[in-house]
Write a structure and sequence with these properties.
This protein has 81 residues and is of the alpha+beta class. It has helices spanning 26-41, 63-68, and strands at residues 2-7, 10-15, 47-52. The two termini are 26 Å apart.
């Protein structure tokens, strides 16, 4: 879903669902947030590169995942406390 790698000060975060044109699921939003928070906390990271696998960056939200999420977990925004 979300892949993250670090090389010479560059944190590469890749959306990795090329078969679905990297459409976001609820889990991907959480994984992306975790990757961004970790990169922000890493003093050796000076650049964050957000990219998508395959021939598309992202088609947006995966509507099937969002409509079938029983608790709408994807709508929850964790507090920054």
């Amino acid at each position: 879903m979300i892949k993250s790698s670090h090389d010479r000060g560059v944190q590469v975060i890749e959306l990795s669902r090329p078969d679905k044109k990297n459409a976001f699921t609820g889990a991907m939003y959480h994984q992306l947030r975790e990757a961004l928070v970790a990169a922000d906390a890493d003093q050796s990271v000076s650049v964050i590169l957000l990219t998508g696998a395959g021939n598309a960056f992202s088609a947006g939200n995966d509507l099937e995942d969002f409509l079938n999420s029983p608790r709408r977990v994807w709508m929850h925004r964790p507090s920054d406390s």
